[in-house]
Specification:
The chain has about 250 residues and is mainly alpha-helical. It has a single domain, classed as Rhomboid-like (Rhomboid-like fold), CATH 1.20.1540.10. It has ten helices and three strands. Strands 1-2-3 form a three-stranded antiparallel β-sheet. A hairpin with a 2-residue loop joins strand 2 and strand 3. Helix 6 crosses helix 7. The longest helix has 22 residues. The two termini are about 40 Å apart.
Length: about 250
């Protein structure tokens, strides 16, 4: 299932979301321009390797400064491949535009980075001895997703389900789709705790980022009177400003 649209209209252009996407793409292009050994060095230096903080002797031996905490932030701008980047950036565009519209530019940027840091700390705490770099913006984007479901619990999502090259579209309440996604993260994250550190998806980064977004959204939400007036023709046909289905008027 691929989400392709939400039912929440926006009032303002998503400048910060667009800027974050541009930053991620530019960093990835620079990353891909390096030779293979240069890419590996960049990922280890700026990706999150929890063991560099829990085992300083190992970190010094492999040339990773154990007192450099910048990777908790920079890891969210690195990606492992084109598919990783595209899926993350599409999800950020889909949900981030709506959340940015309600938080405002500055609040949204602070919120996004805070969720990314929460995701990094959650991953480092659960995988304290891991020597494998964790990279990607998915932890911060999970926070955006958590904020979306908190701000628009009655909204709907249009999903694409390709069946043998035939695209099928259907609507689903956002809370059901996101709750199912979160359940899979917890399930797979729990299973991952019982398996050796073999790499893969940073499930607990997703969980930490999502919970941070869920908790921070109502705190950092800007006052409703600061919104400009909403015009009906800006909305999604059949849905109210907060994404819920609107009842037809009776004449």
């Amino acid at each position: 299932m691929i989400p392709v649209r939400t039912s929440v209209p926006t009032r303002y252009p998503p400048l910060v979301t667009s800027g974050l996407i541009a930053a991620n793409v530019l960093v990835f292009l620079f990353q891909k321009s390096l030779p293979p050994r240069g890419q590996e060095a960049m990922i280890y230096l700026y990706g999150l390797v929890p063991a560099r903080y829990t085992d300083p002797a190992w970190a010094s031996r492999v040339g990773l400064p154990p007192d450099d905490y910048l990777p908790f932030l920079t890891t969210m701008f690195l990606h492992g491949g084109w598919l990783h980047l595209i899926l993350n950036m599409w999800t950020l565009w889909l949900f981030g535009s709506c959340v940015e519209d309600r938080l405002g530019y500055v609040r949204y940027l602070v919120f996004y980075l805070a969720c990314g840091l929460a995701a990094s700390f959650a991953h480092a705490f659960v995988n304290a001895d891991s020597v494998i770099p964790a990279i990607g913006a998915s932890g911060a984007i999970a926070g955006v997703t958590g904020a979306y479901v908190r701000l628009f619990p009655r909204s709907w999502i249009i999903l694409l389900v390709p069946i043998l090259f035939i695209p099928l579209f259907f609507e689903l309440p956002a809370v059901i789709y996101i709750a199912f996604w979160f359940f899979t993260q917890v399930l797979q994250g729990t299973v991952g705790l019982m398996m050796p550190d073999v790499g893969g998806v940073a499930w607990w980064a997703h969980i930490g980022g999502f919970i941070a977004g869920l908790l921070l959204a109502p705190v950092i939400h800007r006052p409703r009177p600061s919104y400009r007036r909403y015009y009906p023709d800006e909305g999604v046909l059949g849905f109210a400003p907060r994404g819920q289905r609107s009842l037809p008027r009776r004449f």
